[in-house]
Design brief:
The complex is a heterodimer of chains A (195) and B (444). Chain A is mainly beta. Chain A has one helix and eight strands. The radius of gyration of chain A is 22 Å and the shape is elongated. Classes of the chains: A mainly beta (195), B alpha+beta (444). Chains A and B meet through β5, β6, β7 and β8 of A and α5 of B.
Chain lengths: 195, 444
């Protein structure tokens, strides 16, 4: 029996170990890409849609072989935003800071993510003494998915598709108030992942 | 469509009459879809509700316009929706799916309902409350109903147990009925026996100032139910909600008055498990619903903090403390001038903290002194910030055979700061005198 054990041991040791997802241990990711925002508000009969630039940073750790937990900061920027054709807003910025959970359903690079946290929105428009700012803060949610393309053991290029929902409260513009603003951003981005 | 979907699920369900060993994900997804289809069709065909008559044109409109805030009543948004979310969650749990993998069922069940189940535009607050509240209430109901049910019981007692669990976990009860588990004898699931628990039921009088009118003290009947399921000092962390606590208050004026539940998502010992002074780090998911004629407040929160226990003597007595910080993912609070349209309360995220000092024996508290402060920043409703603080003392004096007398005092204070109107500050003190009955299980 001891001989059998000795003979069997090397064979057992040579069995391929299950391949771990690309990310393990401490990891970080930064990415950029185009985005589209849809802004809705209470009492508005339609929504405002605009395109802009997005960027994000994610850092985190590994909860299990297939589940990562991290922190994500995301921002959307649009330089010619207006709630209506008459508005003279120049810049709209929206950002979220969320705790995200990333799940790899298989041992390939496919992942889905979800997160919740805080959000902020800032609208800069021409005022009587230069530029005035209206800002709000509130709730941020994110859902999405993507794919890690492993370049090396420590580095991957990551495709991301995500939605970010930000509820930032009222936005006060010259002469009017826009109530209960909800901005939903859709992002397609390329990221660079390090671990 | 509902009938055919039901028929397919019934065939598959009855075909496999044993308790699930591996998750039945297809069945769980089918039941989530069935819940939405069933609720929608019953509202459309039986109750003739116009809002339920959604179709492809409405779906397209919803996908184009996206989220808004709704104007539903406080109880609808803060209790009925989380309960509904619990149905989605427990469609997964009762089909053998674990806690974390059941989370997407609550989120996607709610999302599909908001976009495709009704003519109203998708409501962000509904989605939030149904998803996160559904997780908390769903898991709590799943565990409590598993404790009530007993696969080893027989006869009328067995049926009564199944019926008692039904309001909390109707989907689980439905699945058990189809699988013949209302009568079949077999092993109980792990959730059936929490090892350590304290159930305390009290009935008596409640005295509240400002509860009915702004002047004078009102007197009314009250029932208070406290359940401590599991004990974080007696058992190591195994799975989410292996330790949770619930408080339910029913009131002769206003009926359903309070439901608070907090379950351990994660916990770890900060020192030796055999030390006389223990410290345990915990991350909890919390659900709050308080509604009475004086104030309404509720929300979904995640809290992190330390529970500590000092053993006193050798007969199980101890001193417990808790200190927690929390983030309110989305809260709701009423205040003069708040709300939107017909809604009379605000929605918003926030932060807060709570502390507690208690004298206990084997987990059953005899004296509790506690305080809690919360800040809510409104993002829908008034342009306002709300600060709430709650403090209280609860004393229970055991008499005999589990019975005792309890006295509670409680002060609720809130201050609201508006961008366009004067600040508002209000206090609501109340007291309760109760005859209580305590049943506890303790495994060292």
């Amino acid at each position: 029996m001891a001989l059998c054990t000795l003979l069997a041991a090397p064979a057992w040791a040579q069995q391929p170990r299950p391949r771990r997802p690309h990310r393990s241990g401490l990891w970080g990711e930064i990415g950029f890409g185009p985005g589209r925002v849809r802004v809705a508000c209470s009492g508005c009969t339609d929504v405002v849609v605009a395109s802009g630039t997005t960027g994000y940073v994610r850092i985190g750790g590994t909860a299990s072989d297939r589940v990562l937990i991290g922190f994500e900061a995301f921002a959307f920027l649009h330089r010619a935003f207006a709630f209506s054709p008459g508005d003279s807003i120049r810049t709209a910025e929206t950002a979220t800071a969320t705790v995200v959970v990333i799940w790899f359903p298989s041992r390939r690079g496919l992942f889905v993510k979800g997160g919740v946290g805080i959000a902020g929105g800032q609208f800069i428009f021409p005022g009587t003494t230069g530029a005035d700012t209206s800002s709000g803060a509130g709730i941020g949610l994110t859902f999405g998915g993507g794919w890690d393309f492993a370049i090396s053991r420590k580095f991957a290029v990551t495709m991301n598709f995500a939605a970010y929902v930000t509820a930032v409260g009222d936005v006060v513009l010259p002469g009017r108030r826009i109530d209960d603003v909800i901005a939903t951003m859709y992002q397609g981005a390329i990221g660079f992942t390090f671990r | 469509m509902t009938a055919s979907l039901l028929a397919v699920l019934l065939v598959v369900q009855v075909d496999s009459a044993q308790a699930p060993r591996s998750p039945r994900t297809v069945m769980a997804i089918g039941q989530v879809a069935l819940i939405n289809t069933f609720v929608n069709r019953v509202d459309a065909w039986v109750f003739k509700q116009d809002w339920a008559r959604s179709g492809t044109r409405v779906w397209g409109q919803h996908l184009r316009l996206g989220w808004e805030w709704d104007e539903d009543a406080f109880t609808t948004n803060m209790f009925a929706h989380p309960y509904h979310g619990g149905l989605y969650f427990n469609a997964a749990r009762s089909n053998g799916v674990d806690f974390f993998q059941s989370v997407p069922y609550a989120i996607m069940g709610s999302w599909t309902w908001e976009y495709f189940g009704e003519k109203y535009r998708p409501s962000l607050n509904d989605w939030f409350m149904t998803s996160f509240g559904g997780i908390t209430l769903g898991e709590m109901f799943h565990r409590v109903s598993s404790t009530i049910r007993d696969n080893g019981a027989r006869g009328r007692g067995r049926t009564l147990r199944e019926l008692a669990a039904l309001p909390m976990d109707p989907i689980g009860g439905f699945n058990r009925l189809l699988r013949g588990q209302w009568k079949g004898i077999g092993p109980n699931p792990a959730e059936h026996d929490p090892d350590n628990y304290v159930l305390r039921v009290g009935a008596g009088l409640r005295f509240a100032e400002g509860l009915i009118s702004d002047s004078g003290v009102a007197k009314m009947g009250a029932v208070v139910v406290d359940l401590l399921y599991g004990d974080q000092f007696a058992q190591e962390y195994k799975t989410p909600f292996d330790v949770f606590n619930v408080r339910l208050i029913l009131n002769s004026n206003g009926g359903f008055n309070m439901l608070r539940a907090s379950g351990r998502l994660y916990g770890t010992n900060l020192n030796s498990a055999t030390a006389r002074v223990r410290h345990v780090l915990a991350i909890n998911q919390r659900y709050d619903y308080v509604k009475n004629p004086a104030h309404s407040i509720g929300g979904q929160s995640v809290e992190i903090g330390v529970n500590s226990r000092w053993r006193v003597g050798s007969r199980g007595y101890g001193l417990r403390t808790a200190l927690f910080l929390d983030g309110i993912l989305m809260g709701a609070i009423d205040a003069p001038g708040t709300g939107l349209g017909e809604r009379n309360y605000d929605f918003g995220p926030g932060v807060g903290a709570r502390w507690e000092l208690a004298v206990e024996r084997h987990g059953a508290r005899f004296l509790r002194i506690f305080g809690q402060g919360e800040y809510i920043h409104a993002v829908s409703g008034a342009s306002a910030d709300h600060v709430v603080d709650v403090s209280g003392v609860e004393l229970t004096i055991p008499i005999t055979h589990g019975f005792g007398i309890a006295g509670h005092t409680y002060v609720f204070n809130r201050r609201s700061r508006y961008s366009d109107r004067p600040r508002d500050s209000r206090d609501y003190p109340e007291a309760r005198i109760l005859l209580v009955w305590t049943k506890a299980g303790f495994k060292p």
